[in-house]
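Entry 14: structure prediction run for Alanine--glyoxylate aminotransferase family protein. Input pasted below.
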Amino acid sequence: MPITSFHPPHRTLMGPGPSDVHPRILEALGRPTIGHLDPLFVGMMDECKALLKYAFQTENALTLPVSAPGSAGMEACFVNLLERGDKAIVCVNGVFGTRMIENVVRCGAEAIRVDTDWGKPVDVAAVEAALKANPDAKVLAFVHAETSTGAVSDAEKLCQLAQQYDCLSIVDTVTSLGGVPLYVDKWGVDAVYSGTQKCLSCTPGISPVSFSDKAIAVIKSRKQPVQSWFLDMNLILGYWGEGGKRAYHHTAPINALYGLHESLVMLQEEGLEHAWARHRTMHNALAAGLNALGIEFVVDAEYRLPQLNSVWIPEGVDDAKVRAQLLEEFSLEIGAGLGDFAGKVWRIGLMGFSARAENVRLLISALAKAMQDQGYQCDVEAALAAAEALL
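Run finished. Output tokens:
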């Protein structure tokens, strides 16, 4: 039997990513493909850089979208700033901090691990102690918004510590960009990476990054070549540099960049502060509804990400069966727990275009139905009323 075209169903994506892609972005993806060195495309590249500077709240000249997913943005930061024999302090309060350690090790550098309990923000005092104990550390790396737990860390204080102890800061903002306050210049972040599939409501496959002047100086004065040819910022600058003639480096994902451009235009139209407020409002409504269902959050309210809601699975409720029923009966996706939280928590995303009132209502009613079908007692009408009071 011949294989025919693939036509996916319409899903409501409320997991840890990807999020729902806005119809305007889907339309942008289908626009005519032009050459990656076409003068019009080069002009759009410049606009993408300007829009990313707004999203990151930075004036960094080296701000661009890496032609690969957020994991490549992470690798780009580490391989450009670390050399063999360097030392990096890495904060781990979830899965994605451990991935940072993998990058440090593969660069031939030494990783000094600072652990914090999962579901908690990075322990600032423990980080300072590690910096004092390792005065030769070159980098301090941490996750701003830990997608595996739903906890947000104090990036401003951590970056201040990095400056105080003469370290470069590398910050993972994959889940935070566009969803919670992020000020790259104000906080003094040296290298930052993100993804397009979370609060930007775009398709996966591109990683916005930004490097400070201090970071650029380190990259340009390396003793050893960057171990990744594709991610070497010295080479990429020839293609993504400011104005003028562009040197061929790779064939950019042209249509995917159309989508990113449209998503950033939409973010500019909404305004960063309004986007942050929308995510907070939807979270507050969802939290009220889930609490009314008897569901408790993993993270204390003070450190809780509005766009990634990590909740404990009620006793007696089967994790996999609930998620399967949500997908089959409601075409609704939520995420499972990772690592230490596997089988213990659900991760519910309210990111970008997914952070809408109708999605909050759908999630509460569908989740209540799936749990009730397993004998769990809850009042869905009371839960919906609690959410509605905040919408």
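Notes: The chain has two domains: 23-268, 272-388. Will compare against the previous run tomorrow.
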